[in-house]
Amino acid sequence: MSNAPLFIPVILGTPRQGRQSEFVAKFVVEQVAVREDIETELIDIRTIAISTQDAGESLKDPQFSATMERADGLIIVSPEYNHGYPGLLKHVLDTCLKEYIHKAVGLCGVSAGSFGGTRVIQNLLPVMRELGLVTIFYDLNFSNVQSLFDESGDLLDKPTYSRRFDRFMDELVWMSTVLRYGRQSVRVGQ
Fold it and tell me: Fewest CB within 10 angstroms: 27, 36, 107, 183, which?
């Protein structure tokens, strides 16, 4: 089994202007980056040039595809829009398939309301399964996001969210490690 650090990128799942989830994504990337056994990067779907003239893998962005292929796990930060996920997030995720199989994913829900993106996470779960991703048992919820950060984007209650993040990340690291071992060592269908 590889002793290389795990590679776990963070996907910011909305292109909207004024998005509060950008602060959440930056917090998550900062928290992942302090772990010595993990490499990360922020993937902002706003920066992926993707056509709406077709669908699925025919629209594959080579850089996004290569990053997903390299990834051992993923973190998706998604706001809740009318109880669902952003359409562009789904459009981008659908451009890859084989790149996701048997990889772990952790979900971070963001909302202006008190449920903290619970409904977006519920709606993403069957999508993750269909893509071949394995969801972890712990989600991160960011409720009332407009009150969580100061005007410069710093989290106001960092100790509480850091503890929650550590629990989330410990599970994601475990699952990503186990699944990387499985992808490298166990053949499916034998």
Answer: 36
Neighbours of 143 (CB within 10 A): 16
- pTM here? 0.95
* Closest-CA residue to 104 (of 174, 27, 14, 3): 174
* Tokens at 150, concatenated: 């100061």
> Domain segments of the chain: what residues?
6-185
| Confidence bin at 1 (pLDDT 50/70/90) | low
- Examine the pLDDT at 53 and tell me if it is beyond 80: no
List all residues 6 or more positions away from 165 whose beta carbon is below 8 Å from its beta carbon: 27, 28, 31, 140
Q: What share of the chain is helix, strand, coil (3-state, %, to 5)?
A: 45, 20, 40
Q: CA 90, 143, 104, 18: dihedral to nearest 10 degrees?
A: 40
Q: Tally the C-alpha atoms within 13 A of residue 155's C-alpha that lie toward its C-beta.
A: 20
